[in-house]
Amino acid sequence: MALCELREKHPRFIYKSYDVSKKGRDVRVQFQFKLEPDIFFTPEVTLPTDRGVEESSFENFIFHLGLIESISYWKAACPQELLIEAGKLSNQQIAWWHDLFIHGLGEFFFQNKIDFTPKDFLNIKSNPNKPEIPAQKFPSTSGDLILVGGGKDSAVTLELLKKKEGRKGTFILNPTRASIDNAKIAGYSNPLIAGRKIDPKLLKLNDSGYLNGHTPFSAYLAFLGVFVGVLNDYQNVVVSNERSATEGNFKYLGHEVNHQYSKGLRFEKLFRQYQETYLTDDVQYFSFLRPLYDLQISKLFSNYPEQHLSFRSCNVNQQKDSWCGNCAKCTFVYISLFPFVPYDKMMNIFGEDYYNKPRITPFVRELLGLEGTKPFECVGTAEESKLAIALSIHRYKSLGKKIPSLLNSLKKELHINNEDTMSTLDQRINKKWSKQNFLPLEYTNILKEALAKTN
Fold this sequence. Notes:
The protein is α/β, with parallel strands linked by helices. The protein has helices at about 5-10, 60-75, 90-105, 105-110, 150-160, 175-185, 200-205, 215-230, 265-280, 295-300, 330-335, 345-350, 360-365, 380-400, 405-415, 420-430, 440-455, and strands at about 10-25, 25-35, 40, 45-50, 80-85, 125, 145, 170-175, 190-195, 235-240, 250, 255, 285.
């Protein structure tokens, strides 16, 4: 269905209200959205806590969860007006949310060929009759709440922080076998678990021709994680987003499109400022792995063999709990781990040598920036991929194995001169530490010490 037709049919999206109730020891929040004239959505989320959320101090967090949830439903028709009846926002807050909609939905706009640049493309209004709720104080918070996704990045964070003194816990949204094992193998017990339910009507609309596409999911996790942290008295909410996530895919209508926008540095910085101003400054949200490239994290991950067979990163086969072996994500994870994980273990993890699979060639070329565009997946930079290829060639030689034809052809095309190329790229990637991060000093020291041991 054409955008103009959808916007004419649905001129306004309304965040109407939210409802809070107890569900056992947890808290259930249900949101009410309306896509005018007559479509209603009621998504919900269940939050883990031993305390109630009836206190007015938590209403602001609940209200904001509805704001971030609304993105997924607004995008079905992209109405020109977004009316927030459930609460009041200042002009500065409205500007912040407008910025998140535009940057966070960049991939969605591109894939649906939507021109989001007109000044009046999206008008956000809030309820002037509602009181503005100031940031709240939670001075009794302590310890680290680590968000767990089931991939190698969260595994590295869990392993490196487990020896740190103090209170530590884990948080998982809609848990998978991999995310549960991530935490369990690292020695963390009793994770806090939340459940998010999408309204089935949204999926039916998508099937009938309404718009669909990528949303800034990590932004949702940021708001959710801080709220769960507050509900359970944690001081730090720790995620595992890396330096590589800040690199975009390409530009569309003058704006950078980044599949990983809400994993990147810009979002982290803006979210921290928003959270401290409008939610609470007693909780810190930061990415523990922000100073590192993805390839550096792969090298760290190789030091935890007990995690190697349990982690999963493939989005295609997520429900099957396996690697599809035929997507850009599987390809990047494979080439980034190949130089560091023993060959036999790689075969156990992935089932075969991907470098001997002709079907991954297009993905490798996209990852290297040789063809097409950077894949819409959570992958590293083109420079990292080049170093991974150079290191993989070196690994085959050191093992006395025949170098696959794909690597031989890339060696010529990329002008890889073994030692010189690896030394140059190693200095630009493996030896690098980004100062653009928000790590407290103690966490900086832990990560730097671990990194030094791998070099």
